[in-house]
């Protein structure tokens, strides 16, 4: 009797496993004739999930808008089929996700990964398989050296441009000594590299550098070491929740100097999490984050304004990460329409010639440049009364 | 020198949390011989429930009470649904069951509440400054929670009949059974108690740590290290171990490149397990962690 009931349990288990397997297979194969499959590898869980959630929101919003109009390829109108997969903020997982999307889902192009570490692990694969990929990671290494990144593009501004914008402000505020606090991964490394280069070129004095891991929850020790070097300003290269913790720890330490963040520090959660502690802190970010202040006169401004309003209406708070994903998808669709083909190579070739006004800002891709919005799209923002506003306004 | 004191204070503050988790692990181990790897997840549950309730506008006291009750319930269920049915299995299997349970708890929490970190307001906002040393006031609550937990556990184990019965089970299961003490009831009690202690710490920690479902593992491992430092079967030792671990981490991060922080913590763990395994290898048969 006991044995029989065990068999029954095994049978039920097997049956339920099979149904799950079928369901999984179905999801992947659901692309029909008039749909273009586009793969998405984003951080729906793990340390970078704050980004992933915003990306997913933005992509759903964009896909809806794009499919309402349809994508015109030659004389046919297609819809896009987004295949969204969670890479768990893990470089290895991201590679598995991307490989599976290329082999099983036969995607025409890929959006993702949503961060530098989850992108760096897949660039060689998409390059050798010839699949165009638009990343939301910001590290320069994603798109250079260009001869090994023929199929790889990204939406965030190049690290160097962000550092340039910061240095301009340092000069305005007479800040000479800078200390750097960065997350210990490919994204943080890009920031460290850019600052090392700037220090070498004599554009600033880098008095201290400290790192933390993306699982750390308190950086008091690192902050104490930075302040001991007596910097005029501390620069933080991190995404939430790391950026939030950094803001709190720096404020708690009683540091009297200025605090600057990279665009990765993000938006609403940063302000919500750090609360009053983030008041007066600076961030270099695409202008769109100060959405309510975008006038919406020029066509480019109108695009930003519309996205900001739609996103806010649908999801409540705006996220500084949303525009990167929205643009990644927009760029792919624009490239498909320009190429008049859904062939992977044709999409890549068209993408490289795009000059495009996206939500994040303006893109001017070329055979030399696959990376991100141009410098004019960036602005220095400051937290005032709990919201990001343009500095100097 | 001010920096050194800052490192020590920061270390004690984070160490208080490790101590609280370690206390729970040592308590469960003492009574049942099981290392409960879900202890960190209890902290996560307490912190997350509290932060979510606080975010949705529930007043701190009822939110804390609900978080405490909910987490305690999970501890109760963990014993009844997972540990009790496998009571006659070897201890190592029970330990693996707690690991499985911790994964289930994390997974269910992820699905139920999403991956977003939650933020609760500190009970007493602001910063405490003494000399060149500063500390978020909220950490005093964490330290307070740890102190209350230690005192309560001490009182319970040494001054109440139930606590004495519990220690009896820890000393000799068979003899305790002959005295009319039910080891299975004691197991239920200790898991429930451990969950309640963890939730207490979680509530105090929530405003500092911005809890998300993923914070349990790291807390559990640090707490385990704390318990091992303390000899694993001594709740008081676990508290000392937790504080030591926190300070060692902070001071190491302060004078070495800060990337070595975790390496120090887990290095200590490995060293202890290899060099001074008393408490672990002697009382438990064939456990490799």
Computed Rg of chain B: 19 Å
Helix percent of chain A reads: 40-55%
Intertermini distance of chain B = 39 Å
Strand elements of chain A, count: 15
Class from secondary-structure proportions of chain A? alpha/beta
Order of helices and strands of chain A: HEHEEHEHHEEHEHEHEHEHEHHHEEEE
Beta-strand share of residues of chain A: 15-25%
Give the CA-based shape of chain B.
Answer: globular
What's the oligomerization state? heterodimer
Helix and strand arrangement:
The complex is a heterodimer of chains A (393) and B (289).
Chain A: H1 2-29, E1 35-42, H2 49-69, E2 71-73, E3 76-86, H3 91-103, E4 109-112, H4 116-120, H5 123-129, E5 133-135, E6 152-154, H6 159-172, E7 177-183, H7 186-200, E8 205-212, H8 220-228, E9 233-237, H9 242-253, E10 258-261, H10 268-274, E11 282-286, H11 299-315, H12 322-339, H13 344-351, E12 355-357, E13 362-364, E14 378-384, E15 387-390
Parallel strand pairs in A: 1-3, 1-4, 4-5, 5-6, 7-8, 7-9, 9-10, 10-11
Antiparallel strand pairs in A: 2-3, 11-14, 12-13, 14-15
Helix pairs in contact in A: 2-12, 9-10, 12-13
Chain B: H1 2-32, H2 39-55, H3 60-83, H4 91-113, E1 127-130, E2 133-136, H5 138-159, H6 161-171, H7 173-178, H8 183-209, H9 216-229, H10 235-255, H11 261-275
Antiparallel strand pairs in B: 1-2
Helix pairs in contact in B: 1-5, 1-6, 1-8, 1-9, 1-10, 2-3, 2-4, 2-8, 2-9, 3-8, 5-6, 5-8, 9-10, 9-11, 10-11
Written account of the structure:
Chain A is globular, with a radius of gyration of 22 Å. Chain A has 393 residues and is an alpha/beta fold. In chain A, strand 2 and strand 3 (76-86) form a beta hairpin. Chain A is 44% helix and 20% strand. In chain A, the strands form 3 sheets. A 7-stranded mixed beta sheet of chain A has the order 8-7-9-10-11-14-15, with helices on both faces. A 6-stranded mixed beta sheet of chain A has the order 2-3-1-4-5-6, sandwiched between helices. In chain A, strands 12-13 form a two-stranded antiparallel ribbon. Chain A is built from 13 helices and 15 strands. Chain B has 289 residues and is mostly helical. Chain B has 11 helices and 2 strands; from the N terminus they run H-H-H-H-E-E-H-H-H-H-H-H-H. Chain B has helices at 2-32, 39-55, 60-83, 91-113, 138-159, 161-171, 173-178, 183-209, 216-229, 235-255, 261-275; strands spanning 127-130, 133-136. Chain B starts with a helix and ends in a 14-residue tail after the last helix. The relative contact order of chain B is 0.22. Mean pLDDT of chain B is 87; it is low at 279-289. The A-B interface holds A 44-47, 49-50, 52-53, 184, 210-213, 215-218, 220-222, 224-225, 228, 240-241, 244-245, 248, 251-254, 269, 272-273, 275 and B 3, 6-7, 10, 13-14, 110, 114-117, 119, 127, 129, 134-136, 208-210, 212, 214-215, 218, 250, 253-254, 257-259, 261-262.
């Amino acid at each position: 009797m006991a044995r029989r009931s065990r068999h029954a349990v095994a049978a039920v288990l097997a049956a339920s496993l099979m149904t799950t397997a079928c369901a999984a297979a179905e999801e992947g194969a659901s692309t029909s004739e008039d749909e273009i499959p586009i793969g998405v590898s984003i951080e729906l869980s793990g340390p970078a999930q704050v980004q992933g959630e915003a990306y997913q929101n933005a992509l759903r919003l964009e896909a809806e808008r794009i499919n309402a109009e349809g994508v015109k390829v030659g004389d046919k109108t297609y819809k896009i089929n987004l295949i969204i997969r969670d890479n768990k903020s893990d470089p290895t997982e991201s590679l598995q996700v991307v490989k599976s999307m290329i082999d099983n889902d036969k995607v025409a192009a890929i959006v993702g990964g949503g961060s530098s570490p989850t992108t760096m692990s897949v660039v060689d694969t998409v390059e050798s398989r010839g699949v165009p990929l638009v990343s939301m990671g910001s590290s320069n290494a994603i798109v250079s050296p260009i001869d090994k990144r023929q199929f790889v593009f990204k939406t965030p501004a190049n690290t160097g441009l962000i550092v340039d914008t910061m240095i301009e402000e340092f000069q305005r505020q007479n800040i000479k000594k800078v200390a750097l606090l960065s997350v210990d991964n490919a994204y943080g490394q890009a920031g460290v590299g850019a600052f090392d280069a700037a220090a070498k070129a004599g554009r600033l004095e880098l008095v201290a550098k400290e790192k933390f891991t993306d699982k750390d929850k308190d950086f008091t020790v690192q902050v104490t070491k930075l302040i001991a070097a007596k910097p005029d300003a501390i620069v933080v290269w991190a995404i939430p929740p790391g950026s939030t913790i950094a803001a709190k720890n720096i404020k708690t330490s009683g540091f009297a100097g200025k605090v600057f963040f990279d665009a990765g520090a993000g938006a609403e959660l940063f302000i919500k999490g750090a609360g009053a502690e983030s008041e007066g802190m600076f961030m270099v970010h695409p202008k769109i984050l100060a959405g309510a202040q975008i006038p919406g006169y020029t066509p480019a401004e109108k695009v930003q304004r519309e996205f900001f309003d739609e996103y806010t209406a649908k999801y409540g708070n705006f996220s500084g990460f949303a525009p990167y994903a929205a643009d990644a998808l927009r760029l792919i669709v624009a490239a498909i329409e320009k190429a008049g083909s859904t062939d992977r190579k044709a999409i890549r070739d068209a993408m490289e010639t795009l000059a495009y006004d996206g939500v994040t800002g303006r893109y001017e891709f070329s055979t030399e440049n696959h990376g991100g919005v141009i410098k004019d799209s960036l602005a220095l923002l400051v937290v005032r009364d709990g919201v990001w506003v343009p500095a100097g306004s | 020198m001010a920096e050194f004191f800052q490192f020590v204070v920061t270390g004690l503050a984070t160490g208080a949390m490790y101590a609280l988790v370690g206390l729970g692990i040592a308590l469960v181990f003492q009574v049942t011989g099981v290392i409960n790897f879900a202890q960190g997840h209890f902290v996560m549950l307490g912190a997350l429930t509290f932060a979510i309730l606080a975010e949705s506008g529930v007043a701190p006291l009822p939110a804390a009470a609900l978080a405490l009750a909910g987490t305690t319930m999970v501890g109760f269920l963990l014993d009844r649904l997972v540990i009790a049915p496998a009571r006659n299995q070897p201890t190592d299997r029970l330990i693996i069951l707690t690991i499985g349970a911790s994964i289930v708890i994390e997974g269910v929490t992820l699905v139920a509440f999403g991956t977003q970190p939650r933020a609760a307001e500190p009970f007493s906002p602001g910063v405490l400054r003494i000399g060149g040393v500063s500390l978020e006031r909220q950490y005093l609550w964490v330290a307070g929670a740890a102190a209350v937990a230690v005192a309560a556990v001490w009182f319970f184990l040494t001054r109440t009949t139930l606590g004495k019965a519990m220690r009896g089970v820890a000393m000799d299961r068979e003899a305790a059974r002959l005295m009319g003490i039910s080891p299975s009831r004691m197991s239920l009690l200790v898991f429930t108690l451990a969950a309640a202690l963890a939730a207490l710490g979680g509530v105090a920690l929530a405003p500092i740590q911005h809890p998300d479902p993923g914070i349990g593992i790291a807390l559990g491992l640090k707490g385990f290290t704390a318990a091992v430092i303390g000899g694993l079967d001594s709740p008081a030792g676990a508290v000392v171990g937790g504080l030591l671990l926190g300070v060692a981490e902070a001071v190491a991060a302060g004078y070495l490149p800060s990337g070595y922080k975790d390496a120090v913590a887990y290095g200590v763990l490995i060293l202890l397990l290899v060099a001074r395994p008393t408490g672990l290898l002697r009382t438990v048969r064939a456990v490799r962690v």
